[in-house]
């Protein structure tokens, strides 16, 4: 098999207050995979994500993206390669118009004029939001703001798209539409979620993090139907959802 596009080796991290959040995490993701990162509250999922684009720096171990180590000297390139969509779109949208927000990243990379406009329109088109290009983001609904947040990241043409709780606060139709968008993208995806049916629907592979350690890594169906694993790590399927009776997507 080819080298992983995302290679996390022995990653350990303690916050400045001494709290150890990750203990030697290994995670290898190959190009084109869609992987769900599951685990109970406080497991270390966000801490891991914050290492993928260098917001946090590994205490021990390493993270690399397409062979490039996540390190201070590479941060600009790493942030182009790894696009993180945070849970709250308002952490990502801060400009007076949708266009300005989506332009921001590629303009920083030096794109100008028609090339910049084409990049912005293409990114908004991928999330079905071209018609909103001149609207102020704060006049959009939450679900629309989440789509624009995804577009701000897609406009950077990332190699890896990291989605933190993408389905949270979405109504059922928006949730399904976002799933369709994710499926339509030709990009490697790491999706942090507590929404296990969403993980099942979108990611053929799931990694379970618990107390800062990877405790499972395999086909999502196998993970979600391993009752002992699920209860040991406070993972619960919603009432009526049984992957044993639902064909693998
Ligand atoms: N800034 C911080 N300083 C100290 N400890 C922190 C800090 N941020 C997170 N932690 C601790 O690190 C551990 C992992 O937190 P993290 O946010 O990575 O978990 P998570 O899996 O993303 O949880 P959730 O599902 O609740 O979002 C938790 O015990 C948390 O209390």
UniProtKB/TrEMBL annotation:
NCBIfam families: cbiO
GO terms of molecular function: ATP binding; ATP hydrolysis activity; ATPase-coupled transmembrane transporter activity
Membrane topology, from the record: Peripheral membrane protein
Record-given protein name: ABC transporter ATP-binding protein
Keyword ATP-binding tagged: yes
Family assignment from sequence similarity: Belongs to the ABC transporter superfamily.
Keyword annotations: ATP-binding, Cell membrane, Membrane, Nucleotide-binding, Translocase, Transport
CDD domains: ABC_cobalt_CbiO_domain1
Places the protein is found: Cell membrane
Biological classification of the source: Bacteria, Bacillati, Actinomycetota, Actinomycetes, Micrococcales
GO CC, one annotated term: ATP-binding cassette (ABC) transporter complex
PROSITE patterns (alphabetical): ABC_TRANSPORTER_1, ABC_TRANSPORTER_2
Keyword Transport part of the UniProt annotation: yes
One GO process term, biological-process aspect: cobalt ion transport
Coiled-coil segments on the chain, per record: none
Positions of the ABC transporter domain: 6-236
Chain's role: Part of an ABC transporter complex. Responsible for energy coupling to the transport system.
InterPro entries in the record: AAA+_ATPase, ABC_transporter-like_ATP-bd, ABC_transporter-like_CS, ABC_transpr_CbiO/EcfA_su, Co_trans_ATP-bd, ECF_ABC_transporter_ATP-bd, P-loop_NTPase
Gene3D superfamilies noted in UniProt: P-loop containing nucleotide triphosphate hydrolases (3.40.50.300)
Source organism of the structure: Pedococcus bigeumensis
């Amino acid at each position: 098999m080819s080298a992983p596009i995302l290679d996390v080796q022995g990653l350990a991290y303690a916050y400045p207050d001494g709290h150890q959040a990750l203990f030697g995490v290994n995670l290898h993701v190959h190009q084109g995979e869609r992987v769900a990162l599951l685990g109970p509250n406080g497991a270390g999922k966000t801490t891991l994500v914050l290492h993928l684009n260098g917001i946090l720096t590994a205490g021990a171990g390493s993270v690399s993206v397409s062979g490039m180590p996540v390190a201070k000297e590479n941060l600009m390139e790493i942030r182009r390669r790894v696009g993180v969509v945070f849970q709250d779109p308002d952490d990502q949208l801060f400009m007076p118009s949708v266009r300005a927000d989506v332009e921001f990243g590629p303009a920083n990379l030096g794109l100008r004029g028609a090339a910049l406009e084409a990049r912005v329109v293409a990114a908004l088109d991928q999330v079905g939001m071209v018609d909103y290009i001149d609207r102020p983001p704060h006049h959009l609904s939450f679900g629309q703001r989440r789509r624009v947040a995804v577009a701000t990241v897609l406009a950077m043409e990332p190699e890896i798209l990291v989605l933190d709780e993408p389905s949270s606060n979405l109504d059922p139709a928006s949730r399904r539409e976002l799933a369709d968008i994710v499926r339509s993208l030709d990009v490697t995806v790491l999706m942090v979620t507590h929404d296990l049916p969403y993980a099942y629907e979108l990611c053929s592979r799931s990694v379970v993090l618990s107390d800062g350690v990877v405790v499972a890594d395999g086909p999502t169906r196998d993970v979600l139907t391993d009752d002992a694993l699920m209860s040991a790590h406070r993972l619960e399927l919603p009432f009526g959802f049984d992957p044993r009776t639902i064909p693998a997507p």
